[in-house]
């Protein structure tokens, strides 16, 4: 299996488990942009592959998180720290003022 095929496999599994809406803000590309964008979503690795102590199989249920392009950019904004999806959610809620 090529890396591309493996990535596609994980991507499909992640979407099958988590759906194709952003886990942080709930954005859904298909709903917003229509059919053309349906199924578009970034898949974020919640644990950076480089921090694994030893190579292990990905668990799409906990390791992969669908995020919209905006949220995905924000979790990676700082090079030294990747935000968790929970941290990002909390940020969104407090910024929008409805906590
Ligand atoms: Zn989002
Ligand atoms: Zn990511």
Can you describe this structure in just a few lines?
Helix content is 44%, strand content 8%. It is mainly α and 99 residues long.
Question: What this model shows, in words?
Answer:
This protein is mainly α and 99 residues long. It has one domain. It has a two-stranded antiparallel sheet with strand order 1-2. It starts with a helix and ends with a helix. The protein binds zinc ion (2 copies). The site of one zinc ion has 8 residues, from helix 4.
**Helical amount:** 40-55%
What small molecules are bound in this structure? Answer: zinc ion
Strand order of the largest sheet: 1-2
- Would you tell me the overall average pLDDT? 91
Number of domains: 1
Q: Give the H and E element order.
A: HHEHEHH
Runs in which pLDDT lies below 50 for 5 or more consecutive residues are none
Number of strand elements: 2
The fraction of residues in strands falls at: 5-15%
Number of helices: 5
Tell me the span between the first and last alpha carbons. Answer: 46 Å
Organism: Alteromonas profundi
Protein name: HNH domain-containing protein
InterPro entries: HNH, HNH_nuc
GO molecular function: endonuclease activity; nucleic acid binding; zinc ion binding
How are the SSEs placed, and which strands pair?
Blueprint: H1 3-18, H2 29-33, E1 42-45, H3 60-63, E2 64-67, H4 69-75, H5 85-96
Antiparallel strand pairs: 1-2
Name its key features.
99 residues; mainly alpha; two-stranded antiparallel sheet; 2 strands; 44% helix; binds zinc ion; endonuclease activity; nucleic acid binding; HNH; HNH_nuc; zinc ion binding
């Amino acid at each position: 299996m090529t890396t591309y095929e493996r990535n596609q496999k994980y991507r499909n599994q992640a979407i099958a488990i988590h759906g194709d809406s952003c886990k942080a803000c709930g954005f859904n590309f298909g709903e917003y942009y229509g059919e053309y964008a349906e199924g578009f979503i970034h898949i974020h690795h919640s644990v950076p592959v480089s921090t694994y102590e030893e190579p292990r199989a990905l668990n799409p249920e906990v390791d992969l998180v669908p995020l919209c392009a905006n949220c995905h950019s924000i979790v990676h904004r700082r090079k030294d720290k990747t935000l968790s999806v929970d941290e990002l959610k909390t940020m969104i809620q407090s910024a929008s003022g409805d906590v």
